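Sample intake sheet
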Amino acid sequence: MDIICKRPRGTEDKLPKEIYKWRTVEKIAAQTAEVYGCKEIRTPTFEYTELFQRGVGSTTDVVQKEMYTFDDKKGRSITLKPEGTAGVVRAAIENGLFNDALPLKTYYFTRCFRYETPQSGRLREFNQFGVEVFGAASPSADAEVISLANDVINRLGVKNISLEINSIGCPACRAEYYKALKNYYEQYKDKLCDTCLERLDRNPMRLLDCKSEICSAFKENAPRILDYLCDDCKTHFDGVKARLDALDIKYTVNPLIVRGLDYYTNTVFEFISNDIGSQGAVCAGGRYNGLVEEIGGAPTAGLGFAMGLERIIMVMDSQSLDYEQDAKCDLYLATFDDETNIYAMKLAQRLRNDGFRVEFDTCGRSFKSQMKYANKLDAAYCMVIGSDEIASRSAKLKRMSDGEEVSVSLDDTLSEKLNMLMMNI
């Protein structure tokens, strides 16, 4: 097959027959975010590269290895966004959203791009549902954001999801932790993978996120960040746990969760499924109190999460969960010739304006083929439009499920009649 007819590796086509799954997840996610007071925000697919270098962190794998970066026609470095948070922060600063009443609560659906080895649950172009909250520094905000993510998962009906939380402290207490980590890993320096050797001096906490078998074995006995938290960070984390307990949200404290982006501080969390293999994290996030200032705004507390839509749908499929099915054709208008086809077109337009899903022949099919097509559409009703029906301004509605027919007028009362019939299907 010619390459022009092949999608790039690491991408997926979302086909019409599957879109109902995406609509179900997006609808429930949006409704849940809105009952928590979040408002939707949409940001560009690409940003200036410096935004991600400063916001995500120059030592992260995302910035060092995975970004799709190119120069535009004026030589400016542009990057397809690898994650959603930095763009939302930039938009809030540029548009003065932090001048409004705080907290600022936002949600979004976005496509992200990372050059990674494609595998099940990990694509180079992928979709996320995200929530970002600004101006709320208390443990209640952390618990509320986690609760929002938990509610989305529960409303989708997803089971067997575990919540793991941790605190990675603030820059002050993390500095002492970095020293302890570096001292610990020095004894294994000649055995570390090349990536961990690079991280050891610049960002030693990222060694805990290494997936190689050798480095993973070392981290089991590594110092734990929870032993190095300052009093303020410990109090904050205790407050988060107390509120999750009050909400009856089950969790496990996992001191090895560090997240892969440099902007995180204090609370970090992951919702993990065991039903989709190694890529089990379906939702992850945390607090990032220094990010707004790092990008150029005034010091502003922030926190949020991103939920991988491909992964959550994989889990739902693996658990055979129900989706809100796509709406099907309400009425098919079968015709015989140009005169009846034109009449059907006008009638279809009138009914569509009243909210009905109506189809008629646009392919020049025979009457028999039209009826077969109506069956393939799984139309609820079919109506034959011939010259007699046009002359009498009346026709018969045939219920396709059982063949029952009812006479109806083609005047303005048709929509009302059709609506009553549809309610009884």
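Comment: The mean pLDDT is 93. The chain has two domains: 3-170+230-318, 331-420.
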